[in-house]
Structure formats: structure tokens, C-alpha cells
Amino acid sequence: MDDAGGAVPEVCPDEACSLVDGGAALLDVREPQEWAAGHAPGALHVPLGELGDRLGEVPDGLVVVVCRSGARSAVAAGALRDSGRDARNLAGGMKAWAASGLGVVTDGGADGTVV
User: Fold this and answer.
1) The whole model's pTM is what?
2) Which of 3, 15, 41, 66 is the least buried, fewest Cβ under 10 Å from its Cβ?
3) Closest to 67 (Cα-Cα) out of 16, 15, 4
4) What is the DSSP code (8-state) at residue 22?
5) Active-site option among 29, 40, 66, 67
6) 10-44: b (≥16 Cβ within 10 Å) or e
7) 3-28 confidence digits (pLDDT tens)
């Protein structure tokens, strides 16, 4: 599934948004306080440290994984790929998502921020 170098495939924010619009899951692996400050609409929240125990909550099919800057999500996407899942890392994370003008919201639906 991985290329010869073992690298996790990355997508830019616009491609991630298109994949999610097409049915891919968006998995946010940041910590609870980061999630509370703001996240992508429709994302699923499973902190990286809990992913192994909560893998059953991640939908089947393509998963785009996001964190703040792309480092933790690369680890999570690699772990998902190692378990046989189709996962991509969102390059630049939520910082890049927000900088691209894509939505960031709180659980209450208000405008959120990336911390």
C-alpha cells in the first residue's frame, strides 16, 4: 500500500476537502483542548494516544487524518495504513486548512480557531 520509501501519502487542504465531500472520513487526532478551540466541520475526533483503542470508531474507506501541523497525523495515517486502511495525511494540518479559508468551528457551531 505504501510506496517504496514507506512514506504516507499527503494531500493539500483543497484536495482533502474534495475527498471528504466525496465520502472520505476526516479524522482529527489532536488533543481535546485543541479540538475544543476549533476543528473542521464534520470531522471525527480521536486523539492520537487513543487511536489504537478506538480504531473501531474510524469508518471504513478512505480516511484523511489531520492534526495541528501534520506531524501527529502522519504518525496516525501510517498506523492506519499499517493496519490495512487507506489513509492520507493532511499536509500542514489544521493550520493549512484554516489558511486555505476552509471552515473551523467549535462543537457549538461558532467560528473556531486553531491552537
Assistant:
1) 0.94
2) 3
3) 16
4) T
5) 67
6) bbebeebbebbeeebbbbbbbeeebbeebbbeebb
7) 444 689 999 999 999 999 999 999 99
Specify the number of domains making up the chain.
1
Burial-class residue 76 by CB neighbours within 10 Å (0-12, 13-18, 19+).
buried
Q: Which domain holds residue 92?
A: 10-99
Using one digit for the tens of pLDDT, what is the confidence trace for 26-75?
Answer: 999 999 999 999 999 999 999 999 999 999 999 999 999 999 999 999 99
CATH of the domain at 63: 3.40.250.10
- The verdict on residue 83 lying in a domain is yes
Q: Would you say residue 56 lies in a domain?
A: yes
Residue 43 · residue 26 · CB < 8 Å: yes
Q: Which three cell numbers stand for residue 53?
A: 483503542
One-letter amino acid of 91 = A
- Residue 1 maps to a domain: no
